[in-house]
Amino acid sequence: MTTCVSILSTQVADTPSTWLGLASTRLNNYSTYMSTKQADGLTSADTEIGSRIANALIVKGTNVRALSDKTGISYPTLRRSLTGGRSLTIRELGNIADALNISPSLLLPPSLTEVAA
Question: Which of 2, 17, 59, 84 has the greatest number of CB atoms lying within 10 Å of its CB?
Answer without folding.
Answer: 84
